[in-house]
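WARN  no MSA supplied for this record, continuing single-sequence
INFO  ligand: BES
INFO  echoing inputs
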Amino acid sequence: MAPVDPHSYTDSLQPLTTHVALSLSLDFQSRSISGTATLTLTRPYKGQLFLDTRDLRVHQALDSEGRSLRFSLDLEDSILGSRLVIDLPVETPWIVVSYSTSPHASALQWLEPSQTAGGNQPYVFTQCQAIHARSVFPCQDTPVARVKYTADVEVPGDTRVVMSAAHLERVSLDSGRAVERFVMNQAIPPYLFALAAGDIVHEEIGPRTRVYAEPSVVKAAAYEFANTEATITHAEALFGPYEWERFDVLVMPPSFPYGGMENPRMVFLTPTLIVGDRSAVEVVAHELAHSWTGNLISNATANDFWLNEGFTTYAERRIVEAEQGKDRVELQIGLGWSGLKEEVGRFKDKPQFTKLKTDLKGVDPDEIYSRVPYEKGFHFLRRLESQVGRPKFDKFLKEYIAEFQFQSIDTETFLAFLKERIPGIGDEVDLDKWIYGEGIPVDALEPRSEILDKILELAAQFESGRQLMDADTQNWQAQEWIVYLDNLPKKLSSKQISMLDDSFHFSRSKNWEIRVIFLTIAAHCDYKPCFPAIEDALHSVGRIKYLRPLYAGLLESSPEAKQLAKRVFSDAKPKYHPIAQSVVQGLLTQAGL
Ligand code: BES
Ligand code: ZN
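INFO  complex generated
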């Protein structure tokens, strides 16, 4: 036995899957998907085959001749799920597995009509990263096993389906149900498999972009993301042609656990971005940037996650710089920098998680998810850029993408390529310290700009009683406010908090970043007048980025605040995605609740 990935049962002695054909039927009543997965192997194979599953019921396995195959499901591992072992007594080029998913499948969230914007139809969506594809279909759930796929998805007649794939056709059935057919002809890691079904409509916003959303949301969404084609054009100038043909976006229900997910051809976005001011550019730029860094070149395993997120954060900021200028980006980098320092503090007792290259054997990747791979990865690449100069680094980036596209690589492969293309770089930058060392290397370039410095100064002066004046904030957009709030002291008096809220109404800001940073301070400081707003926020959105600090803030606060956290979670839990549920549950457990 030789595992290729600490988070998968995939065995290096067995052939990988190259193609998955799914034939699925969605049942909103029983909250289950049932159907077949046909897995084609790199070569005809005889022997044992190991697949990843989580909470799947496997009904039958057949070989290419229709012969029934013996199989067994191992006991469940809490992180990996259950290994499915299939015996192939005769060589077979493919296998067909019939199965159904559990109502508790970790990738799937089933929403009642009342949990959608429209309130009339149920909705379901997947979130497969990090290791949840295995709860939707049996597979070799490691990015190393890149697959093309087709999917036929049967749904109720009034339901629309979107996927991370090209839509082929919709066929109405006599039963009143319908089948939507999709094909994905580019090989992707299983974590990029994606599906959503519900009352979904779309608007064209560009030559290769539509915004998909529920009918009551789609207009506002189309407005918010109207500049997407310009963003794609900037990205192509930096990183080469966009290889995925279409760049559509789906605006999710509020319980979507992330800001964005880079599902190819169909990025999933949180509705919290829809503020009406088009301020969400960096999230769109980020998910778009994954089209090169993450989707074309993927991390081999979660140990190399920084190759996905560090490169993408770097690429995102290059795109935003091209679109909006250096000042805007420096604010973003400033926010990231303070976030990085905070995370390094959070991992004080587990400093191994502040390395770029990690060893996550036995560790749930969702549990140690942090800003470190994003921000430290970004700073590593920025350090390299500053060493060799931008023109040379840009050339290197394009070569890197061309060399490894449609592959899943590890950190060492990247390092070897870097040293080959930029000889001597290892003498100028301490690569080992950046990759294998803990914390923030001393040669990281601290963000600075006139506006950033000014805001940091204003925030620092708040303690000594200096309040914001109209003249300070005249030209401020959301970003400036966010940086300001983010840099205020974490302990404020009730008087200070109420003064801020009376002047600026942060606790009900339309901008969720602003609202949550402020409410987190309020939670920390046991500021009870904001408890209703906190409760409201925890009921309204399921984005982990917001749930985590709000719950953590309450849990580190007074006994009443802790009780509030406990009560709100027990009320709101059914609204959260399974991944978000387990993150919050982890916080409560840690706090002894
Ligand atoms: N791929 C990530 C989201 C993710 C990571 C989901 C790991 C599950 C496991 C996505 O690209 C991302 O980074 N989203 C950020 C956007 C932000 C950095 C602009 C988010 O959701 O906050
Ligand atoms: Zn990302």
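The longest helix spans residues 326-346.
INFO  checksum written, moving to next record
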